Amino acid sequence: DVKVTQSSRYLVKRTGEKVFLECVQDMDHENMFWYRQDPGLGLRLIYFSYDVKMKEKGDIPEGYSVSREKKERFSLILESASTNQTSMYLCASSPPGLNTEAFFGQGTRLTVV
Amino acid sequence: AQKVTQAQTEISVVEKEDVTLDCVYETRDTTYYLFWYKQPPSGELVFLIRRNSFDEQNEISGRYSWNFQKSTSSFNFTITASQVVDSAVYFCALSEALGAQKLVFGQGTRLTINP
Predict the structure, then answer these.
(1) Set of chain A residues whose Cβ sits within 8 Å of the Cβ of B44
(2) How high is the pLDDT of residue A2?
(3) Does the pLDDT of residue B18 top 90, yes or no?
(4) Strand partners, B109
(5) CB neighbour class for A36 (10 Å; exposed up to 12, middle 13-18, buried from 19)
(6) Dist. CA A22–CA A76, nearest whole Å
(7) How far apart are CA A84 and CA A60, in angstroms?
């Protein structure tokens, strides 16, 4: 069974903290993605990676960075957490090529206080 | 720029009713892909269907059916004889044909099926 695993379901962090959200996939997929989900806005792409050590900005990269040192792991980093980064974060992966579906993790609900 | 609009924020129906979720998209690409995902309360998005822009055939899978019309840029999803287990948030999404297949999502429709 294919699996995308996010390290935490719920996180509470303080303003200004450095926050790491971890995502691991066991499908040997090249592509990995971080989305943010907010009510009324759907999912918005923060960053994605199509290979190890490669990364590209999505639609809302401000305040975030990412790291992909190994193929199976894609980390989202909030350098200095702010209250407007309180949200649900979803990681996804997909194989290369056309006509492929993305597989999603269960999400991390982050609250910044 | 690509855009997906799901105008229905919430829908509530009684079990066994049919329900249609609307999806309208915008893109300048001639080749693209359309998706529907289901997000149950557990949070994980579950893939339902993928359509490419050259395949306008409607599709039926059990109680689910999809109506793709390029002329109106719509990709609507119908659940026939709805069940309580269909309660979830449903997302329509669009991806480019080239590159890493980044998904552009609609706002989502929260569907509640009441017993």
Answers:
(1) 104-107
(2) 66
(3) yes
(4) B90
(5) buried
(6) 7
(7) 12
Nearest CA to B93 out of B45, B28, B59 is that of B45
Interatomic CA distance for residues B68 and A93, integer angstroms: 26
CA pair distance B67, A22, nearest whole angstrom: 37
B77–A contact, CB cutoff 8 A = no
Q: Return the CA Rg of chain B.
A: 14
Question: Which of A50, A98, A102 is nearest residue B97 as measured by Cβ atoms?
Answer: A98
Identify the closest residue of chain A to B1 by CA–CA distance.
A59
Backbone phi, then psi, for B68, in 5-degree steps? -105, 120
Evaluate whether A46 touches A61 at the Cβ level (below 8 Å). Answer: yes
- Which residue, chain included where needed, has tokens 């149950």? B40
> Does position A23 have pLDDT exceeding 80, yes or no?
yes
